[in-house]
Amino acid sequence: MPNKLLLGAITLLTFLPLIHLIGLVAAPPPSQAQNATLQLQCLYSNYPVTTDERITIIGNLSPARSGTITLYWSINNSGFIYRWNGTTTNGIISRTFGFCCPGVWGFRLVWEGDDEYNGATSNQIFITVISPVASDDWAKFRHDIANTGHSPSSAQITNQTNWVYTSPGAIRASPAIANGVVYVGSFGGSVYAVNATTGALLWSYLTGGHIWSSPAVSNGIVYVGANDNYLYALNAATGEKLWAFDTGGAVFSSPAIYEGTVYIGSIDNRVYALNAATGTQFWNYTTGGQVRASPAIAEGVLYIASEDGYIYALNAFTGANLWVSPTYPGDSYTCSSPAVSGGIVYVGAWDGKLYAFNASTGERLWYHTTGGIIESSPAVANGMVFVGSDDGSLLAVDAVTGRMIWFVSVGSQVYSSPAVAGGIVYFGTWGGDVYALNATTGATKWTYRTGNGVFSSPAIANGMMCIGSYDSKLYAFGTYTESYPPPYEEREDEWVPATESAVQAAAVAGVATAVVSLAPAAFTNPIGGIWDRILERIKDLIPTNLKKWLEYFLLSKRKMRLQAKIGSKFMPTPSEVLAYIVSIVMLAITFAYAKASSVEELASILPIYFATGIIVGLVKRYFTIAFLRSRGVWTEHKVWLFGLALLVFTTIAFRMPFATPTRNVNYSEKYTGRLKATVAISWVLIGLAFAGLFALLMPFGFVQLGSAGLAMCVIGALFDTFPIPPLVGKSLFDHNKILWAMLFALTVAIYIAWLMLM
């Protein structure tokens, strides 16, 4: 019967949080109030944001009133509803969000006060969240805003194609690779988004003219120019047009994005600076010739070459002219784009020279003469500058002196701009060949023959190189491998209670444990409590022989139990198995309940919390038990009904589980005060060590597991240091109060840091 009562009590306590949660979720939604209006706004509701950005959502209640309001949100219409309670100030409320993962996030405000506004519901807004461009991606022409053409990507690439995508028109433009997608434009006017792993078409968008401009990807937007005079901004995920800007001339130039501004050149002789989100013009600068080259940016300065034979340095924020230096006029077809590295600007010219200018002053530092026009854009890597020439060669020169290091003849014009990765230089030729050369020596690693001339320049990312050809094909060499860091999880996806609830739960747990611990002592004190007198009267009524027989019987049973336990030191007893199960189940359910805002979310996160409960509730406790049993102290893990009840109460009352459902009971004269203190210190330090381990898991993407384990261990460590029996903190307090004070201060500090820093 006692076992059945115990099991019944455990079952009831286990389901109390579930019953409470079901009541919350199943409650009917409030009706719409007719005399109040809620408006929800966000600047980025029409534009994608990345997981490393933060946005602010603003709610407006009219007529204005101060009070509590609830913001609900979900991702991808998944049914998992999250919520946050805030307070309006004169009808205004704002909340800043970061996002844990890509998807479409929906938000809505609801007034849930006990007044006539109850049930007022806002409009719903949706925010598209995407992964940020990884540093290994090739997100624009020449890789980066300085146009270095150098990627940190691995280069274990052979001339075996992984896939080939065929477009309806020739591909002159260079591809961009970002977030697992390859973007490229073609003759015929279409922009294509292709899966980087498989080569499958994801979407296409038709502009009004051929596309010679290479796409640039930033914050979920693809920017690309077309020969119909427009610069287009497209949703990177869907291809939907966000805006288009008319430059007044065909756009052969490739865009660059810097500090929220997109820069582009046009054959109307101008350089434009536009708002990257809206397409609104900030400024434009007029040169003396067509601007077919692509801008490079370094330290707030924009460098651009024009067909008037000059290279310009402009203030990137204002468009003010900083300096102008001559190259060579008369480029009637295309123009080399500048690259900036180490305070030097490198650019090719129609006179066949590769020029180097001081980036600050525009002073010409050196030039190197080739045997033909330089329409290729230089790449800069490892102290060397690489560039192609119309004389059918690719050369490498010293970046500081311009001295030639090596020269390779390939037999056809090199319009393609070289790309460098992993010690290899990749480029294409007008004869249709793709080359891979050793960057140090110029030795050929491999070649590949396409079906027509290659004007396109290589893009390299995550072990894959892509390049287009006039044969209308986009070629992918090597295998694309995702290498993004794990997405950052915001506080909303970790379990961290409100500070007020954390303080209240700790205080209630401490007071309740103290009361329950001290109550028996009040009835059994040395001066004769009521309970002592009752026991004495009962003993007086029992015959002496019967009392001796009962004492002998109980002692023999106790000896039998202990003797049996001695035979199997490290095997758990049946009661311990029950205790471990209760500990794991209750820790998992209470901590998952504290985080979950719906039954669906509770069901989804329970497996993670069960895994954490096994680590915290089994491994940590068994280590201490095994240690004590090896020292000759019989320690048994048992269900602690008061701790179980306290765990459930603090969970429901404060959404802050603050207790332990089980405890250790020790039987031995060898369990001295010193050993008790050693066990107490070890018990708490093991818990904190596990907390550190769980904290280390979070930056590597195991956010929910790490968050749950960290919470369990930090709370458990603080609870155990309370100097109240039967907690281990009491043993340490009795043995050495200074050591206890130091350990208690440490756990309190870690507890506060966990609340404030997570």
UniProtKB/TrEMBL annotation:
Keywords: Membrane, Transmembrane, Transmembrane helix. SUPFAM superfamilies: Quinoprotein alcohol dehydrogenase-like (SSF50998). Signal peptide: none annotated. The chain crosses the membrane at residues 577-594, 606-627, 639-658, 679-702, 738-757. Residues 170-248, 337-510 form the Pyrrolo-quinoline quinone repeat domain. PANTHER family: CELL SURFACE PROTEIN, OUTER MEMBRANE PROTEIN ASSEMBLY FACTOR BAMB. This is Pyrrolo-quinoline quinone repeat domain-containing protein.
